[in-house]
């Protein structure tokens, strides 16, 4: 029986809400103040490149910080490291509000990302504590219903807030959001990792956990697929704005709306997975999602080469993100399934790879210019690699037994 089975329904629903909001730290930290970057550069008397770097350093923090928060949650339980992370996120958001120079802001953003990473990785570990198998996939899809609302709302809300708030006002809002989430987590989230299940060692035990993960072929395959999938996603994230606005002439408002539509497509894919996973199992849903993602991504270069132009890209990208939403929760389920005792460390590796490999590939792909062709080829190649590795992961999962 899962931990959740013995928990009152309202408590489970409250946990889903709190965990989903905590998982939204990433999109909220990145998307909410995106429209304010030019005003930020002007206000601090800095270059556009340094203003954009405030996004990059936060992304690095969100990725690298998971390697700290995840193992700590295996050692000290989920609740304490999570509350510390949320409180530090709130503190460093306030530091962003008060930053007098771009250098101070860059440091504050890095620390904000490091602290916010606790919400991302410990959420996954808590879900694994509560569920396993198809039930875990369903739980992750429900979390996506909450957390994926952030990238739908944040760009549009950020554009509207830019009419009444400057960039410091946006960070003041993030400070308030952090404080509210601390209260929600403190009052609505119980400890899910019992004392007997926590490891008592230090770095040696963490090393043992890492070696155990490295010896699990299924985990390694899902990790590699996540790296390739992250590269495809961040190629879309980093290049689509330039391609759709500069090359095809979309207005900032139209692009924000299209960005929200794509986020909604990703959310709907996760919900389709939630409906079908008990019937088909996580392994089949994972493979189906990855193959569909590869197919949709392969249409992107075709749409460019065949001259389909803007309509072709606008039709293909939502399909790509919908398919990614189908596979994502099930890949996490397969990766964490055999690692309940080290779920924090396992989730940390998955999160770190996703948040660090992608941001490296996107800029490299755009070295020759952020063109539609470069974006399409990068997304298609990375998605094909992810699908190939996912097929190997599927075969490994099926060999382990029907529970996957």
Protein model, in words:
It is a multi-pass membrane protein. Belongs to the major facilitator superfamily. Bcr/CmlA family. It comes from Leifsonia sp. NPDC080035. By secondary structure, the chain is an all-alpha fold. The chain has helices spanning 9-23, 25-31, 37-44, 48-64, 66-76, 79-98, 102-130, 133-147, 149-161, 167-188, 203-214, 217-247, 252-280, 282-305, 309-336, 343-365, 372-400. Helix 1 (9-23) runs antiparallel to helix 7 (102-130). The longest helix is centred in the middle third of the chain and has 31 residues, at 217-247. The chain is globular and about 55 Å long. The relative contact order is 0.14.
Which features does this protein show?
404 residues, mainly alpha, 17 helices, 82% helix, globular, membrane, transmembrane helix
Brief overview:
The protein has 17 helices and no strands. With 404 residues, it is mainly alpha-helical.
Stretches where pLDDT falls below 50 for ≥5 residues? 1-10
What's the N-to-C terminus distance?
17 Å
Which oligomeric state applies? single chain
How many individual β-strands? 0
Q: Which percent range fits the helix content? A: over 70%
Tell me, briefly, the overall form. Answer: globular
Major sheet characteristics: none
* Count of DSSP H/I helices: 17
């Amino acid at each position: 029986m899962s931990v959740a089975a013995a928990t009152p329904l309202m408590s489970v629903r409250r946990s889903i809400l709190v965990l989903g909001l905590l998982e939204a730290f990433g999109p909220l930290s990145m998307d909410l103040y995106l429209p304010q970057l030019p005003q930020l550069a002007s206000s601090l008397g800095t270059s556009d490149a340094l203003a954009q770097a405030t996004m990059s350093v936060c992304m690095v923090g969100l990725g690298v910080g998971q390697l700290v928060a995840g193992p700590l949650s295996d050692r000290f339980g989920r609740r304490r490291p999570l509350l510390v992370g949320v409180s530090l996120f709130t503190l460093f958001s306030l530091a962003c509000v008060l930053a007098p120079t771009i250098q101070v802001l860059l440091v504050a953003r890095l620390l904000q990302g490091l602290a916010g990473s606790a919400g991302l990785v410990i959420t996954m570990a808590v879900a694994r504590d509560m569920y396993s198998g198809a039930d875990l996939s369903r739980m992750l899809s429900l979390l996506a219903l909450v957390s994926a609302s952030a990238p739908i709302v944040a760009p549009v809300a950020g554009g509207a807030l830019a009419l009444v708030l400057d960039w410091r006002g946006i960070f003041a809002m993030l400070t308030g959001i952090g404080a509210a989430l601390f209260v929600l987590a403190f009052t609505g989230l119980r400890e899910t990792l019992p004392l007997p299940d926590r490891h008592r060692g230090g770095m040696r035990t963490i090393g043992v956990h890492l070696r155990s993960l490295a010896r699990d072929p299924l985990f390694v395959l899902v990790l590699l697929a996540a790296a390739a999938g992250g590269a495809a996603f961040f190629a879309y994230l980093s290049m689509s704005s330039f391609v759709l606005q500069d090359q095809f002439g979309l207005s900032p408002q139209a692009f924000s709306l299209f960005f929200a539509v794509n986020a909604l497509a990703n959310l709907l894919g996760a919900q389709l997975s939630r409906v079908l996973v008990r019937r088909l199992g996580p392994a089949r849903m994972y493979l189906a999602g990855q193959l569909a993602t590869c197919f949709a991504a392969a249409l992107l270069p075709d749409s460019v080469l065949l001259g389909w132009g803007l309509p072709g890209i606008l039709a293909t990208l939502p399909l790509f993100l919908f398919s990614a939403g189908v596979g994502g929760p099930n890949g996490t389920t397969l990766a964490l399934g055999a690692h309940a005792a080290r779920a924090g460390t396992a989730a940390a590796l998955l999160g770190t790879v996703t948040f660090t490999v992608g941001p490296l590939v996107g800029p490299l792909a755009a070295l020759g210019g952020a063109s539609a062709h470069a974006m399409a080829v990068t997304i298609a190649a990375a998605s094909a690699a992810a699908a190939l590795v996912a097929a190997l992961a599927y075969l490994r999962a099926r060999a382990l037994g029907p529970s996957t």
